[in-house]
Write a structure and sequence with these properties.
With about 260 residues, the chain is α+β, with helices and mostly antiparallel strands. About 20% of the residues lie in helices and about 30% in strands. The chain has 5 helices and 13 strands. The relative contact order is 0.16.
């Protein structure tokens, strides 16, 4: 169990690709169940009676999953996500370059529960939800393109659907247009960072998760570190305190 952050109110776990976060009607044995059992073995009577899921990841996506240890924390952190008070950065490996080196893209997402898939459209449609993300291409390698994504909204399969609508697909994601699967079934989409002002302590918290071990992710990490030494991601706004933690003062906007 890869616990990457823990305090009296929340626990963050680095999820591998293909792990199911919550139980459904088909699959049993979930990250939530395994974590609770781990805490019971580790803490005995001090373990929480249950865990409350705060953020969800698609099953084939890896990265940070946040659980609340008690109901009050679940309410406060769910409200924080709902008010967009959480910085969310993802790493994505794409099979084609996006239209621009950096951009903010907006779509309207329609979710089909029948096929468990979302569709991104440029205009509003019946039952659609507004979706917005920003991205920065930071490098490339082995016919793939390395992209850092800032997620502004949190819709069903949002990153996967929006990039598919742009004509570029996440490596391994055949549901959204990739040509072949990855070994092991996961996709190259990773929830890399969550940052927020803690609603109980008032402290600034930054949680990062390393991606699964493979040569492509290793090259992504190397190129991202090199990029950030010189450039800032273009998607930061004035007052985004996370920016100054990820980039040195000498870094300049990439598009400048």
């Amino acid at each position: 169990m890869d616990i990457i952050y823990e305090d009296a109110h929340i626990i963050a776990v680095n999820k591998s690709g293909e792990e199911l976060v919550q139980q459904n009607d088909v699959m049993k044995g979930t990250l939530q169940e395994f974590l609770l059992e781990h805490l019971r073995r580790r803490d005995g009577a001090g373990a929480p009676p249950r865990l409350h899921l705060v953020n969800r990841l698609d099953r084939p996506t890896s990265g940070i999953v946040l659980f609340a240890r008690h109901r009050k924390a679940a309410g406060k952190f769910s409200d924080l996500f709902r008010r967009r008070g959480v910085y969310k950065l993802y790493w994505a490996v794409l099979d084609a370059p996006p239209p621009l080196p950096s951009d903010t893209v907006e779509h309207f997402i329609v979710e089909s529960r029948r096929v468990n898939k979302s569709f991104a459209f440029p205009e509003k449609r019946e039952r659609s939800e507004y979706a917005r993300l920003s991205y920065q291409v930071i490098g490339s390698g082995d016919c793939y393109f390395f992209v850092v994504v800032r997620l502004h909204t949190g819709r069903h399969h949002q990153i996967r659907a929006q990039f598919s609508a742009l004509g570029c697909h996440i490596k391994g994601d055949i549901k959204y247009g990739a040509k072949r699967t990855n070994r092991g079934g996961g996709i190259h989409l990773h929830a890399r960072l969550l940052a927020f002002v803690h609603p109980f302590t008032g402290e600034r918290v930054v949680i990062t998760a390393d991606p699964p071990a493979d040569s492509l992710w290793e090259e992504f990490a190397r190129q991202d570190a090199h990029f950030r030494r010189t450039y800032r991601y273009d998607f930061w706004d004035e007052g985004d305190w996370v920016r100054d933690l990820l980039h040195p003062p000498s870094a300049v906007s990439f598009s400048r």
